[in-house]
Protein backbone atom coordinates (compact mmCIF):
# COMPACT_ATOMS: atom_id res chain seq x y z
CA UNK A 1 0.00 0.00 0.00
CA UNK A 2 1.41 3.38 -0.90
CA UNK A 3 1.17 6.26 1.52
CA UNK A 4 -2.06 8.18 1.03
CA UNK A 5 -2.15 11.90 0.54
CA UNK A 6 -2.23 13.95 3.74
CA UNK A 7 -4.10 17.24 4.13
CA UNK A 8 -1.12 18.49 6.19
CA UNK A 9 2.28 19.70 5.09
CA UNK A 10 3.90 17.40 7.62
CA UNK A 11 7.46 18.39 6.72
CA UNK A 12 6.62 21.95 7.61
CA UNK A 13 4.84 20.93 10.81
CA UNK A 14 7.89 18.93 11.85
CA UNK A 15 10.11 22.01 11.60
CA UNK A 16 8.05 23.46 14.46
CA UNK A 17 9.10 20.58 16.74
CA UNK A 18 12.90 20.78 17.21
CA UNK A 19 13.03 17.56 19.25
CA UNK A 20 12.02 15.56 16.17
CA UNK A 21 15.46 16.28 14.70
CA UNK A 22 17.16 14.40 17.51
CA UNK A 23 19.29 11.41 16.75
CA UNK A 24 19.48 8.62 19.28
CA UNK A 25 22.10 6.04 20.25
CA UNK A 26 23.50 4.34 17.17
CA UNK A 27 22.76 7.51 15.16
CA UNK A 28 19.16 6.42 14.59
CA UNK A 29 16.73 9.25 13.87
CA UNK A 30 14.02 9.55 16.50
CA UNK A 31 10.76 7.90 15.44
CA UNK A 32 8.37 9.16 18.11
CA UNK A 33 5.24 7.01 18.23
CA UNK A 34 4.26 7.73 21.83
CA UNK A 35 2.12 10.86 21.59
CA UNK A 36 -0.78 9.27 23.47
CA UNK A 37 1.59 9.19 26.42
CA UNK A 38 2.71 12.76 25.98
CA UNK A 39 3.02 14.89 22.86
CA UNK A 40 6.05 16.86 21.75
CA UNK A 41 6.00 20.67 22.01
CA UNK A 42 6.32 23.20 19.19
CA UNK A 43 8.66 26.18 19.36
CA UNK A 44 5.66 28.47 19.70
CA UNK A 45 4.78 26.90 23.06
CA UNK A 46 8.39 26.78 24.28
CA UNK A 47 8.89 30.44 23.35
CA UNK A 48 5.68 31.44 25.12
CA UNK A 49 6.85 29.79 28.34
CA UNK A 50 10.25 31.51 28.14
CA UNK A 51 8.68 34.84 27.24
CA UNK A 52 6.31 34.68 30.20
CA UNK A 53 9.08 34.01 32.71
CA UNK A 54 11.49 36.40 31.01
CA UNK A 55 9.20 39.41 30.63
CA UNK A 56 5.86 39.14 32.40
CA UNK A 57 6.31 36.95 35.46
CA UNK A 58 4.06 37.90 38.39
CA UNK A 59 1.31 36.26 40.39
CA UNK A 60 -2.21 36.52 38.99
CA UNK A 61 -5.29 38.27 40.33
CA UNK A 62 -3.59 39.71 43.39
CA UNK A 63 -1.16 42.33 42.15
CA UNK A 64 -1.99 45.89 41.17
CA UNK A 65 1.31 46.41 39.41
CA UNK A 66 1.82 46.23 35.65
CA UNK A 67 3.48 42.83 35.57
CA UNK A 68 0.63 41.44 37.61
CA UNK A 69 -1.84 42.82 35.15
CA UNK A 70 0.06 41.38 32.19
CA UNK A 71 0.31 38.00 33.82
CA UNK A 72 -3.36 37.98 34.76
CA UNK A 73 -4.41 39.06 31.27
CA UNK A 74 -2.34 36.26 29.72
CA UNK A 75 -3.68 33.67 32.18
CA UNK A 76 -7.30 34.69 31.66
CA UNK A 77 -6.63 34.98 27.93
CA UNK A 78 -5.65 31.32 27.94
CA UNK A 79 -9.04 30.54 29.51
CA UNK A 80 -10.73 32.29 26.58
CA UNK A 81 -8.73 30.22 24.13
CA UNK A 82 -9.65 26.96 25.84
CA UNK A 83 -13.31 27.97 25.93
CA UNK A 84 -13.25 28.71 22.21
CA UNK A 85 -11.46 25.43 21.45
CA UNK A 86 -14.24 23.26 22.87
CA UNK A 87 -17.02 25.76 22.07
CA UNK A 88 -17.90 26.25 25.73
CA UNK A 89 -20.94 28.50 26.17
CA UNK A 90 -19.05 30.55 28.78
CA UNK A 91 -15.38 31.16 29.60
CA UNK A 92 -16.25 30.82 33.30
CA UNK A 93 -16.90 27.13 32.68
CA UNK A 94 -13.18 26.46 32.07
CA UNK A 95 -11.45 25.34 35.28
CA UNK A 96 -7.67 24.99 35.19
CA UNK A 97 -6.35 21.92 37.02
CA UNK A 98 -2.93 20.36 37.03
CA UNK A 99 -3.87 17.52 34.64
CA UNK A 100 -6.79 15.33 33.58
CA UNK A 101 -6.39 13.19 36.66
CA UNK A 102 -7.01 16.17 38.93
CA UNK A 103 -10.02 17.22 36.84
CA UNK A 104 -11.56 13.75 37.18
CA UNK A 105 -10.75 13.61 40.88
CA UNK A 106 -12.32 17.03 41.36
CA UNK A 107 -15.67 15.75 40.17
CA UNK A 108 -15.51 12.44 42.03
CA UNK A 109 -14.35 14.10 45.21
CA UNK A 110 -16.90 16.92 45.28
CA UNK A 111 -19.78 14.55 44.51
CA UNK A 112 -18.60 12.26 47.31
CA UNK A 113 -18.03 15.07 49.80
CA UNK A 114 -21.71 15.38 50.65
CA UNK A 115 -21.32 19.16 50.83
CA UNK A 116 -23.57 20.10 47.91
CA UNK A 117 -26.84 21.84 48.83
CA UNK A 118 -28.75 19.94 46.14
CA UNK A 119 -29.02 16.21 46.94
CA UNK A 120 -28.71 15.50 43.22
CA UNK A 121 -25.00 16.31 43.65
CA UNK A 122 -24.43 14.15 46.74
CA UNK A 123 -23.43 10.52 46.35
CA UNK A 124 -24.75 8.12 48.96
CA UNK A 125 -25.97 4.58 49.61
CA UNK A 126 -28.40 3.47 46.93
CA UNK A 127 -26.76 5.64 44.27
CA UNK A 128 -24.80 4.16 41.40
CA UNK A 129 -21.65 5.28 39.60
CA UNK A 130 -21.06 3.90 36.09
CA UNK A 131 -17.72 3.78 34.27
CA UNK A 132 -16.34 1.47 31.58
CA UNK A 133 -13.78 -1.31 31.49
CA UNK A 134 -11.64 0.69 29.05
CA UNK A 135 -11.05 3.67 31.37
CA UNK A 136 -7.64 5.02 32.25
CA UNK A 137 -6.90 4.31 35.93
CA UNK A 138 -7.51 8.04 36.46
CA UNK A 139 -11.17 7.46 35.69
CA UNK A 140 -11.50 4.27 37.74
CA UNK A 141 -9.70 4.78 41.02
CA UNK A 142 -11.30 8.15 41.98
CA UNK A 143 -14.73 6.54 41.54
CA UNK A 144 -13.81 3.46 43.50
CA UNK A 145 -12.70 5.75 46.31
CA UNK A 146 -15.89 7.79 46.01
CA UNK A 147 -17.97 4.61 46.17
CA UNK A 148 -16.10 3.45 49.23
CA UNK A 149 -16.56 6.77 50.98
CA UNK A 150 -20.26 7.12 50.26
CA UNK A 151 -21.63 3.60 50.00
CA UNK A 152 -22.65 4.19 46.38
CA UNK A 153 -22.34 1.23 44.02
CA UNK A 154 -19.52 1.16 41.45
CA UNK A 155 -20.56 -0.37 38.10
CA UNK A 156 -19.11 -0.56 34.60
CA UNK A 157 -19.72 -1.30 30.95
CA UNK A 158 -17.83 -4.37 29.71
CA UNK A 159 -16.07 -4.63 26.35
CA UNK A 160 -16.80 -6.63 23.22
CA UNK A 161 -14.18 -8.89 21.65
CA UNK A 162 -13.37 -6.26 19.03
CA UNK A 163 -12.58 -3.57 21.58
CA UNK A 164 -15.83 -1.65 21.84
CA UNK A 165 -18.18 -0.83 24.69
CA UNK A 166 -20.75 -3.52 25.21
CA UNK A 167 -23.85 -1.34 25.23
CA UNK A 168 -26.27 -4.27 25.17
CA UNK A 169 -27.11 -3.82 28.86
CA UNK A 170 -27.24 -0.03 28.84
CA UNK A 171 -30.93 0.07 29.83
CA UNK A 172 -30.24 -1.76 33.08
CA UNK A 173 -26.75 -0.42 33.76
CA UNK A 174 -27.82 3.22 33.54
CA UNK A 175 -30.99 3.40 35.61
CA UNK A 176 -32.89 5.64 38.03
CA UNK A 177 -30.26 5.05 40.70
CA UNK A 178 -27.39 6.21 38.47
CA UNK A 179 -25.99 9.56 39.61
CA UNK A 180 -23.08 9.81 37.21
CA UNK A 181 -21.70 8.09 34.15
CA UNK A 182 -18.01 8.76 33.56
CA UNK A 183 -16.48 7.48 30.35
CA UNK A 184 -13.59 7.97 28.02
CA UNK A 185 -14.16 9.57 24.62
CA UNK A 186 -11.23 7.86 22.90
CA UNK A 187 -9.52 4.96 24.65
CA UNK A 188 -5.83 5.46 25.31
CA UNK A 189 -5.10 1.76 25.04
CA UNK A 190 -7.47 0.53 22.31
CA UNK A 191 -7.94 3.64 20.19
CA UNK A 192 -11.72 3.11 20.25
CA UNK A 193 -13.86 6.23 19.89
CA UNK A 194 -16.96 5.67 21.98
CA UNK A 195 -20.58 6.21 21.05
CA UNK A 196 -21.09 9.13 23.43
CA UNK A 197 -24.50 10.07 21.99
CA UNK A 198 -26.09 6.75 22.96
CA UNK A 199 -24.75 6.99 26.52
CA UNK A 200 -25.82 10.63 26.86
CA UNK A 201 -29.33 9.85 25.57
CA UNK A 202 -29.81 7.10 28.17
CA UNK A 203 -28.31 9.20 30.97
CA UNK A 204 -30.74 12.02 30.11
CA UNK A 205 -33.69 9.64 30.46
CA UNK A 206 -32.74 8.89 34.06
CA UNK A 207 -31.29 12.28 35.00
CA UNK A 208 -27.70 11.09 35.47
CA UNK A 209 -24.70 13.36 34.93
CA UNK A 210 -22.22 12.50 32.17
CA UNK A 211 -18.51 13.20 32.57
CA UNK A 212 -16.40 12.65 29.46
CA UNK A 213 -12.66 11.98 29.65
CA UNK A 214 -11.41 13.81 26.57
CA UNK A 215 -7.69 13.35 27.27
CA UNK A 216 -7.24 11.44 23.99
CA UNK A 217 -9.88 13.19 21.88
CA UNK A 218 -9.53 16.94 22.49
CA UNK A 219 -5.95 16.91 21.12
CA UNK A 220 -6.98 15.16 17.92
CA UNK A 221 -10.32 16.38 16.63
CA UNK A 222 -12.65 19.39 16.75
CA UNK A 223 -14.78 19.23 19.91
CA UNK A 224 -18.08 20.95 20.61
CA UNK A 225 -19.25 20.32 24.17
CA UNK A 226 -22.79 21.41 23.46
CA UNK A 227 -23.11 19.10 20.48
CA UNK A 228 -21.68 16.23 22.56
CA UNK A 229 -24.36 16.91 25.15
CA UNK A 230 -22.21 15.96 28.14
CA UNK A 231 -22.22 17.76 31.48
CA UNK A 232 -18.49 17.73 32.16
CA UNK A 233 -15.30 17.23 30.13
CA UNK A 234 -11.78 16.57 31.43
CA UNK A 235 -8.57 16.80 29.41
CA UNK A 236 -4.86 17.36 29.85
CA UNK A 237 -2.48 19.91 28.35
CA UNK A 238 0.64 17.83 27.79
CA UNK A 239 -1.05 15.52 25.30
CA UNK A 240 -2.07 18.46 23.08
CA UNK A 241 1.36 20.02 22.46
CA UNK A 242 1.08 22.02 25.71
CA UNK A 243 3.26 21.90 28.83
CA UNK A 244 2.94 19.42 31.66
CA UNK A 245 1.29 20.59 34.88
CA UNK A 246 -1.88 21.95 33.32
CA UNK A 247 -5.25 20.33 32.64
CA UNK A 248 -8.82 21.44 32.18
CA UNK A 249 -12.21 20.62 33.60
CA UNK A 250 -15.10 22.05 31.65
CA UNK A 251 -18.59 21.81 33.09
CA UNK A 252 -22.01 23.26 32.38
CA UNK A 253 -22.41 26.33 34.57
CA UNK A 254 -25.39 24.87 36.39
CA UNK A 255 -23.37 21.77 37.31
CA UNK A 256 -20.25 23.64 38.39
CA UNK A 257 -22.37 26.04 40.43
CA UNK A 258 -24.02 23.15 42.22
CA UNK A 259 -20.82 21.28 43.05
CA UNK A 260 -19.16 22.29 46.34
CA UNK A 261 -15.53 23.53 46.37
CA UNK A 262 -12.74 20.99 45.95
CA UNK A 263 -9.54 22.42 47.44
CA UNK A 264 -9.66 25.34 49.82
CA UNK A 265 -7.23 28.25 49.77
CA UNK A 266 -6.44 31.64 48.36
CA UNK A 267 -8.40 32.94 45.38
CA UNK A 268 -11.29 30.49 45.73
CA UNK A 269 -13.06 32.52 48.40
CA UNK A 270 -15.43 35.42 48.50
CA UNK A 271 -14.93 36.22 52.14
CA UNK A 272 -13.25 34.39 54.98
CA UNK A 273 -14.26 34.74 58.58
CA UNK A 274 -13.11 32.64 61.51
CA UNK A 275 -16.70 31.49 61.87
CA UNK A 276 -17.05 30.44 58.22
CA UNK A 277 -16.29 31.34 54.61
CA UNK A 278 -18.14 31.96 51.38
CA UNK A 279 -16.80 31.09 47.99
CA UNK A 280 -15.94 32.83 44.76
CA UNK A 281 -18.07 32.15 41.70
CA UNK A 282 -16.75 29.77 39.03
CA UNK A 283 -14.13 29.37 37.70
CA UNK A 284 -12.19 30.64 40.73
CA UNK A 285 -14.22 28.55 43.17
CA UNK A 286 -12.23 25.55 41.91
CA UNK A 287 -8.82 27.22 41.57
CA UNK A 288 -7.38 27.40 45.08
CA UNK A 289 -3.92 28.85 45.47
CA UNK A 290 -1.48 30.17 42.89
CA UNK A 291 -2.39 28.33 39.70
CA UNK A 292 0.05 26.90 37.14
CA UNK A 293 0.29 30.31 35.45
CA UNK A 294 3.00 29.77 32.88
CA UNK A 295 1.59 26.35 32.05
CA UNK A 296 -1.89 27.73 31.41
CA UNK A 297 -0.44 30.46 29.19
CA UNK A 298 1.65 27.82 27.42
CA UNK A 299 -1.49 25.75 26.88
CA UNK A 300 -3.15 28.81 25.37
CA UNK A 301 -0.25 28.98 22.89
CA UNK A 302 -0.73 25.27 22.18
CA UNK A 303 -4.40 25.90 21.38
CA UNK A 304 -3.38 28.69 19.00
CA UNK A 305 -0.91 26.35 17.35
CA UNK A 306 -3.41 23.49 16.93
CA UNK A 307 -6.18 25.71 15.63
CA UNK A 308 -3.70 27.41 13.33
CA UNK A 309 -2.88 24.06 11.74
CA UNK A 310 -6.56 23.08 11.92
CA UNK A 311 -7.95 20.29 14.10
CA UNK A 312 -10.08 18.97 11.26
CA UNK A 313 -6.96 18.59 9.14
CA UNK A 314 -5.01 17.05 12.01
CA UNK A 315 -7.83 14.58 12.47
CA UNK A 316 -7.90 13.67 8.81
CA UNK A 317 -4.12 13.25 8.73
CA UNK A 318 -4.29 10.87 11.69
CA UNK A 319 -7.06 8.82 10.14
CA UNK A 320 -4.85 8.35 7.07
CA UNK A 321 -1.94 7.30 9.26
CA UNK A 322 -4.09 4.89 11.22
CA UNK A 323 -5.51 3.15 8.16
CA UNK A 324 -1.98 2.82 6.81
CA UNK A 325 -0.69 1.49 10.14
CA UNK A 326 -3.46 -1.10 10.45
CA UNK A 327 -2.63 -2.40 6.96
CA UNK A 328 1.09 -2.50 7.71
CA UNK A 329 0.70 -4.18 11.08
CA UNK A 330 -1.82 -6.73 9.85
CA UNK A 331 0.70 -7.68 7.18
CA UNK A 332 3.32 -8.65 9.80
CA UNK A 333 2.96 -12.34 10.60
CA UNK A 334 2.21 -12.95 14.28
CA UNK A 335 1.08 -9.40 15.03
CA UNK A 336 -2.42 -9.16 16.51
CA UNK A 337 -4.25 -5.85 16.94
CA UNK A 338 -5.86 -5.37 20.37
CA UNK A 339 -8.85 -3.09 19.79
CA UNK A 340 -10.81 -2.19 16.67
CA UNK A 341 -9.13 -3.66 13.60
CA UNK A 342 -10.96 -1.39 11.20
CA UNK A 343 -11.27 2.33 10.72
CA UNK A 344 -14.79 2.46 12.10
CA UNK A 345 -14.92 4.77 15.14
CA UNK A 346 -11.29 4.67 16.07
CA UNK A 347 -8.42 7.12 16.45
CA UNK A 348 -4.68 7.11 15.92
CA UNK A 349 -3.62 4.85 18.76
CA UNK A 350 -2.94 1.22 17.89
CA UNK A 351 -2.18 -1.49 20.45
CA UNK A 352 -0.92 -4.89 19.42
CA UNK A 353 0.83 -8.03 20.61
CA UNK A 354 3.53 -9.98 18.82
CA UNK A 355 3.23 -13.76 19.07
CA UNK A 356 5.83 -15.21 21.38
CA UNK A 357 7.56 -11.94 22.20
CA UNK A 358 6.77 -10.07 25.39
CA UNK A 359 5.89 -6.37 24.86
CA UNK A 360 8.87 -5.35 27.00
CA UNK A 361 11.18 -7.03 24.57
CA UNK A 362 9.32 -5.57 21.59
CA UNK A 363 9.62 -2.07 23.01
CA UNK A 364 13.29 -2.45 23.90
CA UNK A 365 14.28 -3.74 20.47
CA UNK A 366 12.27 -1.03 18.74
CA UNK A 367 13.98 1.53 20.95
CA UNK A 368 17.35 0.25 19.84
CA UNK A 369 16.26 1.20 16.33
CA UNK A 370 15.14 4.64 17.48
CA UNK A 371 11.42 3.78 17.45
CA UNK A 372 9.76 5.03 20.65
CA UNK A 373 6.55 3.20 21.54
CA UNK A 374 4.89 2.47 24.86
CA UNK A 375 4.69 -1.00 26.35
CA UNK A 376 2.75 -2.18 29.36
CA UNK A 377 -0.88 -1.85 30.35
CA UNK A 378 -0.98 1.91 29.63
CA UNK A 379 -2.68 2.70 32.96
CA UNK A 380 -5.68 0.68 31.78
CA UNK A 381 -4.94 -2.71 33.30
CA UNK A 382 -8.55 -3.95 33.17
CA UNK A 383 -8.29 -3.86 29.36
CA UNK A 384 -5.36 -6.28 29.43
CA UNK A 385 -7.21 -8.51 31.88
CA UNK A 386 -10.28 -8.45 29.60
CA UNK A 387 -8.24 -9.68 26.64
CA UNK A 388 -6.14 -12.13 28.66
CA UNK A 389 -2.78 -10.54 27.91
CA UNK A 390 -0.15 -9.22 30.31
CA UNK A 391 0.54 -6.06 28.32
CA UNK A 392 0.57 -4.60 24.83
CA UNK A 393 2.84 -2.57 22.61
CA UNK A 394 1.21 0.71 21.61
CA UNK A 395 2.01 3.06 18.75
CA UNK A 396 0.26 6.43 18.78
CA UNK A 397 0.29 9.17 16.18
CA UNK A 398 -0.07 12.92 15.99
CA UNK A 399 0.10 15.79 13.53
CA UNK A 400 3.87 15.42 13.11
CA UNK A 401 3.82 11.66 12.47
CA UNK A 402 4.85 10.56 8.97
CA UNK A 403 4.02 7.52 6.88
CA UNK A 404 7.76 6.75 6.81
CA UNK A 405 7.68 6.44 10.58
CA UNK A 406 5.00 3.79 10.33
CA UNK A 407 7.19 1.97 7.81
CA UNK A 408 10.01 2.19 10.38
CA UNK A 409 7.72 0.59 12.96
CA UNK A 410 6.81 -2.26 10.61
CA UNK A 411 10.47 -2.79 9.67
CA UNK A 412 11.35 -2.78 13.35
CA UNK A 413 8.76 -5.46 14.05
CA UNK A 414 10.25 -7.67 11.34
CA UNK A 415 13.61 -7.29 13.09
CA UNK A 416 12.04 -8.14 16.44
CA UNK A 417 10.61 -11.31 14.96
CA UNK A 418 13.91 -12.30 13.38
CA UNK A 419 15.69 -11.70 16.67
CA UNK A 420 13.38 -13.79 18.80
CA UNK A 421 12.42 -16.22 16.01
CA UNK B 1 22.10 -5.20 17.23
CA UNK B 2 21.29 -5.31 20.92
CA UNK B 3 24.88 -5.82 22.01
CA UNK B 4 24.52 -4.68 25.55
CA UNK B 5 21.14 -5.93 26.69
CA UNK B 6 20.23 -9.09 24.83
CA UNK B 7 23.31 -11.29 25.20
CA UNK B 8 23.23 -14.70 23.47
CA UNK B 9 23.32 -16.36 26.89
CA UNK B 10 20.14 -14.55 27.91
CA UNK B 11 18.35 -15.50 24.71
CA UNK B 12 19.48 -19.12 25.17
CA UNK B 13 18.06 -19.28 28.68
CA UNK B 14 14.86 -17.60 27.48
CA UNK B 15 14.32 -19.98 24.57
CA UNK B 16 15.53 -23.08 26.45
CA UNK B 17 14.86 -22.50 30.14
CA UNK B 18 16.56 -24.78 32.65
CA UNK B 19 14.53 -26.44 35.38
CA UNK B 20 11.28 -24.72 34.53
CA UNK B 21 8.03 -26.01 36.06
CA UNK B 22 6.83 -26.22 39.65
CA UNK B 23 7.89 -29.37 41.51
CA UNK B 24 7.14 -31.22 44.74
CA UNK B 25 8.23 -31.49 47.44
CA UNK B 26 9.04 -27.96 48.46
CA UNK B 27 9.49 -26.15 51.74
CA UNK B 28 8.51 -22.63 50.71
CA UNK B 29 6.86 -20.87 47.81
CA UNK B 30 6.53 -17.22 46.77
CA UNK B 31 4.66 -15.51 43.96
CA UNK B 32 5.94 -12.11 42.82
CA UNK B 33 4.50 -9.79 40.21
CA UNK B 34 5.84 -6.66 38.62
CA UNK B 35 2.71 -4.50 38.48
CA UNK B 36 4.09 -2.07 35.93
CA UNK B 37 4.55 -4.67 33.22
CA UNK B 38 2.65 -7.75 34.31
CA UNK B 39 5.66 -10.06 34.64
CA UNK B 40 5.06 -12.74 37.21
CA UNK B 41 6.87 -15.66 38.70
CA UNK B 42 6.26 -18.38 41.26
CA UNK B 43 9.35 -19.86 42.91
CA UNK B 44 9.50 -22.96 45.11
CA UNK B 45 12.46 -23.92 47.23
CA UNK B 46 13.18 -27.34 48.69
CA UNK B 47 15.75 -27.56 51.49
CA UNK B 48 17.35 -30.59 53.08
CA UNK B 49 19.42 -29.70 56.12
CA UNK B 50 21.45 -26.74 54.94
CA UNK B 51 21.35 -27.66 51.24
CA UNK B 52 18.96 -26.31 48.64
CA UNK B 53 17.93 -29.47 46.84
CA UNK B 54 15.66 -27.84 44.26
CA UNK B 55 14.59 -24.44 43.00
CA UNK B 56 11.58 -24.78 40.71
CA UNK B 57 9.66 -21.97 39.07
CA UNK B 58 7.00 -21.01 36.61
CA UNK B 59 5.92 -17.67 35.27
CA UNK B 60 5.33 -15.42 32.36
CA UNK B 61 7.04 -12.28 31.25
CA UNK B 62 9.76 -10.75 29.17
CA UNK B 63 12.95 -12.50 28.12
CA UNK B 64 14.94 -10.83 30.89
CA UNK B 65 12.67 -11.96 33.72
CA UNK B 66 12.32 -15.50 32.43
CA UNK B 67 15.98 -16.01 31.53
CA UNK B 68 16.97 -14.70 34.93
CA UNK B 69 14.83 -17.38 36.61
CA UNK B 70 16.53 -20.05 34.53
CA UNK B 71 19.98 -18.81 35.56
CA UNK B 72 18.84 -18.65 39.17
CA UNK B 73 17.76 -22.30 39.04
CA UNK B 74 21.08 -23.31 37.57
CA UNK B 75 23.22 -21.37 40.03
CA UNK B 76 21.44 -22.11 43.27
CA UNK B 77 20.22 -25.69 43.03
CA UNK B 78 22.53 -27.89 45.07
CA UNK B 79 24.26 -25.12 47.00
CA UNK B 80 24.02 -24.38 50.69
CA UNK B 81 21.54 -21.75 51.84
CA UNK B 82 24.44 -19.59 52.97
CA UNK B 83 26.16 -19.72 49.57
CA UNK B 84 22.87 -19.13 47.78
CA UNK B 85 22.25 -15.94 49.71
CA UNK B 86 25.80 -14.81 48.94
CA UNK B 87 25.16 -15.35 45.20
CA UNK B 88 21.81 -13.58 45.48
CA UNK B 89 23.51 -10.63 47.15
CA UNK B 90 26.20 -10.45 44.46
CA UNK B 91 23.62 -10.62 41.66
CA UNK B 92 21.47 -7.91 43.28
CA UNK B 93 24.52 -5.67 43.68
CA UNK B 94 25.37 -6.16 40.02
CA UNK B 95 21.83 -5.28 38.96
CA UNK B 96 21.65 -2.22 41.17
CA UNK B 97 25.14 -1.04 40.19
CA UNK B 98 24.00 1.12 37.24
CA UNK B 99 26.57 -0.60 35.05
CA UNK B 100 29.47 0.38 37.35
CA UNK B 101 29.95 -3.02 39.04
CA UNK B 102 32.41 -5.50 37.49
CA UNK B 103 30.66 -8.90 37.32
CA UNK B 104 32.37 -11.87 38.98
CA UNK B 105 32.01 -14.92 36.73
CA UNK B 106 33.24 -17.31 39.44
CA UNK B 107 30.27 -16.40 41.59
CA UNK B 108 27.63 -15.59 38.97
CA UNK B 109 28.31 -17.97 36.07
CA UNK B 110 25.85 -17.20 33.27
CA UNK B 111 24.48 -14.45 35.52
CA UNK B 112 27.25 -12.12 34.26
CA UNK B 113 25.34 -11.87 30.99
CA UNK B 114 22.88 -9.63 32.84
CA UNK B 115 25.55 -6.99 33.52
CA UNK B 116 24.22 -4.93 30.60
CA UNK B 117 20.70 -4.92 32.05
CA UNK B 118 21.95 -2.80 34.95
CA UNK B 119 22.18 0.14 32.55
CA UNK B 120 18.43 -0.01 31.87
CA UNK B 121 16.70 0.99 35.12
CA UNK B 122 13.31 -0.01 33.70
CA UNK B 123 14.52 -3.57 33.19
CA UNK B 124 16.38 -4.14 36.46
CA UNK B 125 13.09 -5.05 38.11
CA UNK B 126 12.56 -7.74 35.48
CA UNK B 127 15.97 -9.29 36.14
CA UNK B 128 15.48 -9.26 39.92
CA UNK B 129 11.91 -10.57 40.03
CA UNK B 130 12.74 -14.27 40.46
CA UNK B 131 15.58 -13.52 42.85
CA UNK B 132 13.29 -11.62 45.21
CA UNK B 133 10.77 -14.44 45.03
CA UNK B 134 13.58 -16.90 45.75
CA UNK B 135 14.58 -14.96 48.83
CA UNK B 136 11.02 -14.99 50.13
CA UNK B 137 10.44 -18.63 49.35
CA UNK B 138 13.67 -19.62 51.09
CA UNK B 139 12.85 -17.58 54.16
CA UNK B 140 9.50 -19.35 54.30
CA UNK B 141 11.11 -22.75 53.88
CA UNK B 142 13.51 -21.98 56.73
CA UNK B 143 10.79 -20.84 59.12
CA UNK B 144 8.52 -23.69 58.03
CA UNK B 145 5.89 -21.20 56.91
CA UNK B 146 5.61 -23.02 53.60
CA UNK B 147 2.64 -21.27 52.05
CA UNK B 148 2.65 -18.91 49.15
CA UNK B 149 3.43 -15.31 49.82
CA UNK B 150 2.05 -12.67 47.47
CA UNK B 151 4.33 -9.78 46.77
CA UNK B 152 4.44 -6.95 44.36
CA UNK B 153 7.90 -5.91 43.31
CA UNK B 154 7.96 -2.20 42.74
C1 LIG C 1 -7.73 8.57 28.58
C2 LIG C 1 -6.86 9.21 29.61
N1 LIG C 1 -7.40 9.70 30.72
C3 LIG C 1 -6.65 10.30 31.66
C4 LIG C 1 -5.29 10.42 31.52
C5 LIG C 1 -4.52 11.07 32.62
O1 LIG C 1 -3.86 12.20 32.19
P1 LIG C 1 -2.85 12.92 33.19
O2 LIG C 1 -1.82 11.87 33.53
O3 LIG C 1 -2.26 14.03 32.40
O4 LIG C 1 -3.62 13.33 34.36
C6 LIG C 1 -4.68 9.91 30.38
C7 LIG C 1 -3.23 10.01 30.18
O5 LIG C 1 -2.41 9.23 30.53
C8 LIG C 1 -5.48 9.28 29.40
O6 LIG C 1 -4.94 8.77 28.30
UniProtKB/TrEMBL annotation, chain A:
<dbReference type="InterPro" id="IPR020578">
    <property type="entry name" value="Aminotrans_V_PyrdxlP_BS"/>
</dbReference>
<dbReference type="InterPro" id="IPR000192">
    <property type="entry name" value="Aminotrans_V_dom"/>
</dbReference>
<comment type="similarity">
    <text>Belongs to the class-V pyridoxal-phosphate-dependent aminotransferase family. Csd subfamily.</text>
</comment>
<dbReference type="Pfam" id="PF00266">
    <property type="entry name" value="Aminotran_5"/>
</dbReference>
<dbReference type="GO" id="GO:0031071">
    <property type="term" value="F:cysteine desulfurase activity"/>
</dbReference>
<protein>
    <recommendedName>
        <fullName>Cysteine desulfurase</fullName>
        <ecNumber>2.8.1.7</ecNumber>
    </recommendedName>
</protein>
<dbReference type="InterPro" id="IPR015422">
    <property type="entry name" value="PyrdxlP-dep_Trfase_small"/>
</dbReference>
<dbReference type="InterPro" id="IPR015424">
    <property type="entry name" value="PyrdxlP-dep_Trfase"/>
</dbReference>
<comment type="function">
    <text>Catalyzes the removal of elemental sulfur and selenium atoms from L-cysteine, L-cystine, L-selenocysteine, and L-selenocystine to produce L-alanine.</text>
</comment>
<dbReference type="InterPro" id="IPR015421">
    <property type="entry name" value="PyrdxlP-dep_Trfase_major"/>
</dbReference>
<feature type="domain" description="Aminotransferase class V">
    <location>
        <begin position="31"/>
        <end position="409"/>
    </location>
</feature>
<keyword id="KW-0663">Pyridoxal phosphate</keyword>
<dbReference type="GO" id="GO:0006534">
    <property type="term" value="P:cysteine metabolic process"/>
</dbReference>
<keyword id="KW-0808">Transferase</keyword>
<dbReference type="GO" id="GO:0030170">
    <property type="term" value="F:pyridoxal phosphate binding"/>
</dbReference>
<dbReference type="InterPro" id="IPR010970">
    <property type="entry name" value="Cys_dSase_SufS"/>
</dbReference>
Automatic annotation (TrEMBL), chain B:
<dbReference type="Pfam" id="PF01592">
    <property type="entry name" value="NifU_N"/>
</dbReference>
<dbReference type="InterPro" id="IPR002871">
    <property type="entry name" value="NIF_FeS_clus_asmbl_NifU_N"/>
</dbReference>
<dbReference type="GO" id="GO:0005506">
    <property type="term" value="F:iron ion binding"/>
</dbReference>
<protein>
    <submittedName>
        <fullName>SUF system NifU family Fe-S cluster assembly protein</fullName>
    </submittedName>
</protein>
<dbReference type="GO" id="GO:0016226">
    <property type="term" value="P:iron-sulfur cluster assembly"/>
</dbReference>
<comment type="similarity">
    <text>Belongs to the NifU family.</text>
</comment>
<dbReference type="GO" id="GO:0051536">
    <property type="term" value="F:iron-sulfur cluster binding"/>
</dbReference>
<feature type="domain" description="NIF system FeS cluster assembly NifU N-terminal">
    <location>
        <begin position="6"/>
        <end position="126"/>
    </location>
</feature>
Amino acid sequence: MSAPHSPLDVDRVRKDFPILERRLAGDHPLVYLDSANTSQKPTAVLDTLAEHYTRHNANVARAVHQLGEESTAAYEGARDKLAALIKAPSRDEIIFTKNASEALNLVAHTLASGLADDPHYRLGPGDEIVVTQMEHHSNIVPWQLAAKRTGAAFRWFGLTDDGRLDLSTIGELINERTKIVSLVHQSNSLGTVNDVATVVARAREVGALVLLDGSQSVPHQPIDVTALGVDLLAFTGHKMVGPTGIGVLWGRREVLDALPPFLGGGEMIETVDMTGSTFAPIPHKFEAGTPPIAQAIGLGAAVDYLTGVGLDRIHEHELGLTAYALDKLNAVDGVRIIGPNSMESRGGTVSFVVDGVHPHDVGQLLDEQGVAVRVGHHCARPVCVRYGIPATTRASFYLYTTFDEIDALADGLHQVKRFFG
Amino acid sequence: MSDSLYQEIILDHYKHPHGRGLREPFGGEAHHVNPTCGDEITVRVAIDGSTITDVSYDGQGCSISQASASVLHELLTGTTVEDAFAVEKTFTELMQGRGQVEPDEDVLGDGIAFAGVAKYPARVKCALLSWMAFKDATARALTGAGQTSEEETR
